[in-house]
Amino acid sequence: MHAAISRTAQEKIKAALAGKPNVVVYSYPGQRHAFSRNNGAHYDAAAAALANGRTRDFLNRALR
Fold it and tell me: How many domains does one find in the chain?
């Protein structure tokens, strides 16, 4: 979740979505806003690859 969202709010969101069959919430600890933006100030290749892979997998499942 976005760093601007407090931990308390994050936990409430995660709890509200727990058990929903079509929802998965991922957090990327230590990452800042736009960590997957190529050449961005906070780019992190490993975290970006993980997030982008998860997005690709989701779209492959959802759009079939």
Answer: 1
Q: What pLDDT band is residue 5 in, cutting at 50, 70 and 90?
A: confident
Is 56 domain-assigned? Answer: yes
Let me know if residue 31 belongs to a domain: yes
pLDDT, tens digit, for every residue of 22-40? Answer: 899 998 989 999 999 999 9
Exposed e or buried b for every residue in 50-63, given b needs 16+ CB within 10 A?
A: ebeeeeeeeeeeee
